[in-house]
Amino acid sequence: MTTARFLKARDIAPWLEELSTAYTVLAPARHGDTVVFRDFNPANGIDMEHLSATPAKKALLPPCETLFEYKTTKTEEPPYKTAIELHPTLPEGKVLVFGARPCDARAMQIFDRVYDGNQARDPYYTARRNNATIVTLACDHQEETCFCDRVGGSPVDATGSDVLLTPLKAGYVAEALTDKGETLLNSTTFMKADGLKQEALNARHKMLEQVPDRSSFLDMERNLLSLFSDLGFWDKTAQACLSCGACTYLCPTCYCFNITDESHGDSGKRIRTWDNCMSSQFTLEGSGHNPRPTKAHRMRNRIGHKFSYYPQLHDKTLACVGCGRCISNCPVSFDIRNAVACAIQQADAAREHAHD
Amino acid sequence: MTQHTQELRKLIAQELPNLDVVLAWTHGHNSLTSTPLFITTQEDLEKLDSGPMHVQNLAAYLPSLKGRKVGIVTRGCDSRTIIELLQEKLIERKNITIFGISCSGAVNIRAVRRAVNGESVRSVQADGDSITVTTNHGTHTLRMQDVLMDKCYTCTNQTPIIHDHMVIAQTADHVPGDAPQTTLDALDSMEPGERFAFWEEHMDRCIRCYACRNACPLCVCKDSCVAQSRDPHWLDQSDTPREKLMFQAIHALHSAGRCTECGECERACPMGIPVLAMKQALNRRIKHLFDYQAGMDAQSTPPLFMFRQQEENIKERDAR
Q: Which of A248, A303, B114, B220 could make an S-S bridge to A254, C-beta 3.0–4.6 Å?
């Protein structure tokens, strides 16, 4: 039996302040005109209404993290041997993500398969993951760019969340889904609300009824693969793309990184930073050869990875949660939904042609 | 479809057989957004739309299409980019066919979102000097003059400086209006310490996607940019405001006296960081020192592309 509590809208800030003593709290708040996930500070407020421009992924994959620090020392006499000292820096401390959306929480499970799976276990990622608690806010409407329902999710999906908040008038019903969530709801800020469970369920049903009936992007791994060598298709798809990285950095499921050593004098640090497959340097090899020399190659990879390669490796789960951030924030309004729909159409047409 | 757009389609249809591709706009995922359209067939042409919602500076694509016969729909501000690209020999005049349109101002999406208090926009209808925005909460009618891009308030080139064809039909006059306070105005009134704090605060949310760089029609290094180069190592990959600001400083210096202030860098920024101001500050120095504005005359040479032993306004020898 899961616990349910009621959180009044005006109690959110005091609750997060209370949590701030034990956790680093990330919450959506305005920064200039933009809503981003940032360290909670009562002075910045919280924005519960808008889908943030940045996803909550930095809780698990920060834009920049130090893997270790190093210092080199040289002997003063010949033969001048160099010694190096390494200091690993595993992340410590608990993080609480408040106000993640269902798409954000689902996306984190997409990382888990890669960074905390059977084949590889990344110590930095798993340390953050184990220390993270996710409080998700069920959506009460879909933005025009939202399409979670077409990629296996829903605006009220609780997958990957420790607590799910369902908005009602004047506040939120908070339901614990994990032990971590149960612990959180012990706070005296909450009011008992087991009686409101049904009301929350009704509110979520009402939201689901608003979701339009539209085609799904599931199960199209083979379709996309059949277009792999049709570079003309990808050329046309990527025509307007500027090859910047906005879509990937704002994507809650993109997890590629770069590793660099940043030295200052005889000491420095090895850092892992977000990288993006839309940049030509991403696949540039030491020899100068680039297997993805044009933006068409790169677009094929981005869409292929999300809708074909990743699902093939991971039980048909798409590496897209349909948050639409890549659409609403693209400088040229590139619409991944159109691109995928065109790919399905093109692949179907090619198949029919083959049967003629 | 406006008469203006009809006439534009007709002009392009006539020239299309002689061209490899024509750059224009179509609507994006909703009527508030636009996306560049690459026309090669009659079918593509039918998607063409133009008006105050169509905002991208299409000239940004020209250098990557060098050597091909390209048509381009061009507003006054965009024509300055084309001139600058011609001056820098990044494109060839003989390969470019310019379809000029007169512009009544382009809508700043961020200003619209602000004006409707961030409500989710469902549709937008532009109607001369006003726009009607339907959101999930209701309908708002906004004055066009309150939601234009900053550059439109001080625009002196509603029609292109150069063109091969010109659309005569005009939907509306240039919408005059009081220019809002720009970032540059605000920065001017700050002490250096405050100014630094301003940039530190804004750069904190920069995600280093380099949309500002890739949207810039004059950023021509692109794949060999110092931002990602390890040798030279001007910037490291740390996620600090210092490194991010350093990139902006490099971008601004590289475009000094070349930047036509088309505002694509700022428009493209997904984080809404006012990065144009730095370029405007440098251009103001260029205007003061060399009495020069970028992209006004295809025959002139940008001042930082040449060397004079004695500059008129730089009294280097006297100071010694």
A: A248
Q: The pTM is what?
A: 0.94
> Looking at the complex, does the CB of residue B54 fall below 8 Å from at least one CB of chain A?
no
**Minimum mean pLDDT among A74-78, A120-124, A254-258, A287-291: which range?**
A74-78
Pairwise CA distance, residues A185 & A157, whole Å = 19
Q: Is B213 on the interface with A (CB under 8 A)?
A: yes
Provide, as residue numbers in chain B, all residues whose Cβ is less than 8 Å from the Cβ of A335: 28-29, 35
Instruction: Using an 8 Å CB-CB cutoff, list chain A residues near B37.
Output: 240
Number of domains in chain A: 1
User: In this complex, is the C-beta atom of B101 within 8 Å of any C-beta atom belonging to chain A?
Assistant: no
Domain span holding position A202: 4-355
